[in-house]
Amino acid sequence: MKSATTASRTAVLVCQGRAVADTWDDVERFADPTAARLLLDDEQAAVDLASDDAPPPGWGLRVEWEMLRATAEVIVPRTVAIDDALREQVNAQVVILGAGLDGRAWRMTELAGSDVFEVDHPASQQDKRSRARDLSPVARDVRFVPVDFGRDDLGEALTAQGHRVEVATTWVWEGVVPYLSRSEVEATMRVIGDLSAAGSRLIVNYQVPSAKAALGRLVMRAMTTLSRRPDPLAGEPTRSTWTALTMRELLEVHGYAVVRDVDLLTLATDTGRPVRQRRSLANGRVVVAELS
Ligand SMILES: C[S@@+](CC[C@H](N)C(=O)[O-])C[C@H]1O[C@@H](n2cnc3c(N)ncnc32)[C@H](O)[C@@H]1O
Question: How confident is the model over 28-48, as pLDDT tens digits?
């Protein structure tokens, strides 16, 4: 579970990944000009280093360079898949669960007729609000909904901010499910089901179980510790993984039918850039589901 008082470091890491990828000329269908604008100076300095194909000198900088480039490679297909799914059917309400430093409300002009509800852990959300204060949303409205999925009532919080149960909603749940326990994921899914009118769409990014991926994560963390750099994964351990089947079953219980469920490795091959992080990409998936 996230600490009650500190903003998410993984949210910064994935935002840095988007900022690195935004500098790549050979990647197709990806753009996120908001990412760099949401970073603090030292975070952007690391992005500048990682945007250079030549690794920096020194072990510490090299570990960070590797981590940001690996993150960028995984983030590109994930972002493209979710953006595509959002554009395919634009609903008047979009709820971004565990929004972190997501820039969609500030960059996707397709959301000009949508109210975007940014749900996040209170500490992460406070941090986001201060970073985003100089940005102008392109969405019709952005409403901030502070919620700890492990403690707070998501349904009540959304309703208090004007979410309407009779209006179709697109739910985006990106990069969050792994950090929640199974019971937190199930409880959140129950609320999503209860607040979804016909025509709602649900887009979930999740991780499948993999011993090799868990080992890779441990190695990366050990290298970060040895390099004496801050470890972005320290406060947010992986708490749940799902197979395509168990995810489908979870969604179906709440009335959602799966439209497609694709692994990031398959999606990455469409983005034009050579694939290096095969294992990480193969373990991440994006499922798109609809409620009729
Ligand atoms: C890796 S970041 C992903 C952020 C964003 N969705 C993205 O892909 O850029 C994980 C996000 O989940 C949020 N999160 C993790 N545990 C949470 C909890 N128990 N309640 C609310 N938010 C949580 C963090 O605050 C953070 O914003």
Answer: 899 999 999 999 999 999 999
